[in-house]
Design a protein that fits this description.
- With 408 residues, the protein is an alpha+beta fold.
- It folds into 2 domains: 11-308, 2-Layer Sandwich (BirA Bifunctional Protein, domain 2); 321-407, Anticodon-binding domain (Rossmann fold, 3-Layer(aba) Sandwich), CATH 3.40.50.
- It has 12 helices and 23 strands.
- The chain has helices spanning 21-28, 44-63, 77-83, 85-88, 110-120, 166-186, 233-236, 295-305, 332-343, 357-367, 377-381, 403-407, and strands at residues 32-36, 39-42, 67-68, 74-76, 93-96, 102-105, 129-138, 153-163, 193-199, 206-213, 219-224, 230-232, 250-265, 275-277, 283-285, 287-294, 307-308, 311-312, 323-327, 348-351, 371-375, 385-389, 396-398.
- The strands form 6 sheets. Strands 9-10-13-11-12 form a 5-stranded mixed β-barrel. A 5-stranded mixed beta sheet has the order 20-19-21-22-23, with helices on both faces. Strands 4-6-5 form a 3-stranded antiparallel beta sheet.
- Helix 2 crosses helix 8 (295-305).
- The longest helix has 21 residues, at 166-186.
């Protein structure tokens, strides 16, 4: 894409009403725009990045047999009354239509997925089964102060699994755990992300979070020095040793929750009577698991993790483009290289704007694409083009003919 045609432009000044690094850099670089506290517009660069994150998640969830659907955001009050959460959930947005009928703007989808599953799960032969979606969620978040890490409207992947036995749920839970680590690895977060024991509430003894260590995190976790699992501060006083390995030495860290998984057991299958006859003809309530990842929160966490004083440093797999092509003074060689990269399927943002070299380099560092390629009289005289990784300081001159194979 040519940068001169890009809908958005970069800005030099930090937004006055944002204190978080993720919001400041994403707004300045033209990835998002703030509508109001906790609500952001995804601009072209931001949407491209979110779609990359979505595709990573989709590929890994499909590998563990997830089937994708999309459920409504507008949800009937009676479903929420059936589970007892209409009055119990403090952050639930409630709306009325002109006929005075009440609805919820979905903060989650247990109240929708269970009656949906009941229509199609008619026999023990129909399970286990696993369905997931990417859907906007709404939560009455009064602490919207961390950019896209904590929003009132946000995009989330939620996966639900349905099982006849707890043992089968346990097996799939482990598969989901492994899939999550693969997802975070592909996003560049695995090395700093820890499998964290948290309160299971009324569901089970523990739920589990995936916490990325970062000084701006709102959570405090205690990482086991023996097995590298962690415990959330909310349950640390109740536990003297690591639930995973029995270790007793921990280090304290601040962290951002980037995902969570829960064994819901029969918490939601019971009120909707989601049950089947087993192979012996005995009625069995199904047990469930749920598995969530916030896509915007993941994007914000990546920015908080990978940036420097000049801007964002995107991991290659989720960057909106692979290379930022910069032409210093318009020339035919730059156009030729741009067209050749496009022809070979390399995702490229071509800065063809009329601006100084310094302005172009500042834009490239702020936007943070994995590679910067510069075509100038200086580079051409030196034998080719200049290429530099965003994560590295040093640039090198390579032959023009080498570029495509290097970037593929």
């Amino acid at each position: 894409m040519k940068q001169s045609q890009l809908f958005t432009k970069t800005t030099k000044e930090n937004p006055k009403d944002e204190t978080s690094i993720n919001a400041r850099l994403l707004i300045r670089a033209g990835f998002i725009d703030k509508l109001m506290a906790g609500v952001y517009t995804l601009l072209p660069l931001g949407l491209l990045t979110i779609k990359k994150i979505e595709n990573v998640i989709r590929e890994e969830i499909n590998k563990i047999d997830g089937q994708e659907i999309v459920m409504p955001t507008l949800q009937p009050k009676e479903n929420w009354e059936k589970t007892g959460r209409w009055d119990a959930m403090d952050d639930l947005y409630k709306v009325k239509d002109s006929g005075n009928k009440e609805y919820a703007l979905g903060p989650t989808h247990e109240e929708i997925i269970v009656p949906l599953a009941k229509k199609f799960i008619n026999s023990y032969k129909d399970i286990p089964t696993y369905v997931y979606q990417f859907q906007n969620k709404f939560r009455m978040e009064l602490r919207s102060k961390s950019g896209i890490l904590r929003g009132r409207e946000f995009l989330m992947k939620d996966l639900y699994s349905f099982h006849l036995t707890k043992e089968d749920l346990d097996d799939y839970y482990q598969k989901a755990k492994e899939a999550y680590f693969k997802i975070f690895e592909r996003m560049g977060l695995k090395e700093k992300t820890y499998y964290t024991f948290a309160s299971g509430g009324s569901f089970c003894k523990y739920s589990h979070e995936f916490q990325t260590v970062n000084p701006v995190g709102e959570d405090t976790i205690y990482i086991c020095e023996k097995c590298q699992s962690a415990i959330n501060k909310e349950i640390k006083d109740e536990i003297n040793e690591c639930p995973e390995c029995g270790g007793k030495k921990f280090r304290e860290e601040k962290a951002i929750e980037v995902g969570n998984i829960f064994k819901l057991m029969n918490k939601y299958s019971k009120p909707f009577d989601l049950s089947v006859l087993d192979e012996n003809g005995k009625k069995q309530e199904l047990v469930m698991g749920c598995y969530g990842i916030g896509l915007g929160r993941a994007m914000g966490t990546i920015v908080e993790t990978y940036h420097d004083e000049a801007g964002i440093i995107w991991p290659e797999e989720i960057a909106p483009f692979k290379v930022h092509l910069i032409s210093i003074k318009q020339n035919e060689e730059a156009e030729k290289i741009y067209n050749n990269l496009m022809k070979d399927g390399v995702e490229v943002l071509y800065d063809d704007c009329e601006a100084s070299a310094g302005e172009k380099f500042a834009d490239a560092d702020l936007i943070g694409l994995p590679y910067r390629v510069v075509i100038s009289d200086k580079s051409l005289k030196a034998g080719g083009i200049e290429i530099k990784k965003r994560s590295e300081k040093k640039a090198e001159i390579i032959k023009t003919t080498e570029l495509n194979s290097l970037l593929k």
